[in-house]
């Protein structure tokens, strides 16, 4: 049992490093595809990202969000290795014995041939591990910061494009020409978004699978610590680790939700114009833009998992199912689980758009229903 605990702990601490290295290898493999995107961004920045105060507000919000994400992630990831280095030193300085004769704890999990018991060897190993910690920190933030910056850039440009479509005067003699320019700009943004999604799709797949695996390992360790009655510090440590993993998943889903919302908003901006008063040539341009916007831009993991707040809520709902099924600690012994869509909803007073699942135990049949708008628990006894 002790060896199993040690193996799980080593996996918990070593897996993020392996994931960071794998992410950077995937990014290096796909990096050349981003050259056209970066060139387009550089050209757009040289020409000016906005031309009016209204456009400025739209661009600044996304720039602030991008800067905040990059700064906070880099600061937090630099803070963690620094904390690993300073905690053993502070504990040694504040030691009541007045000297540091106890074994030193390295900032990284390293299996050594012999035990470190003096300051010289401890300082030497810390100096050796410091470059690797710095490189791993930079590698963890570089690809994600670039993804966030480029995605928010596209969101800002789509928002500006929708603002132009709604505020272009249809009575102007240059209206048709201006609409053609806007449609060309829309096609360019679609091309850039497609390149961005294709470049980061495999990387996000690796990241998503790594997050799921990390969350499973941490949840297992948390349950084992609770059942074995270990200290509160261990439980708090794993809870913070789990919260960090869930927060990172939320950031990815929020990023994808912004891109989806802005691409769909362009559809509504085209429809909100006085299209019924426009000539047929201009109406055709609007129809092309609406048809393209009907398929929202999105970020995917492996081109099948779409990052959005809806999918993030689905994952949380799945976790809620597991928490409900975890009734063993309250005296229930779950023996069967199944999902049913063909129950007699009228007899138990449930809506037609409600999904049901039931589990049986020694006390009877318990039903849990999750509706579209209302979540409630319905219990029945035999």
Automatic annotation (TrEMBL):
Keywords recorded for this protein, A-Z: Membrane, Olfaction, Receptor, Sensory transduction, Transducer, Transmembrane, Transmembrane helix
Main location: membrane
GO molecular function, one term: olfactory receptor activity
GO biological process: signal transduction
Membrane topology recorded in Swiss-Prot or TrEMBL: Multi-pass membrane protein
Keyword Chaperone in record: no
Protein name from the UniProt record: Odorant receptor
Organism whose genome encodes this protein: Dinoponera quadriceps
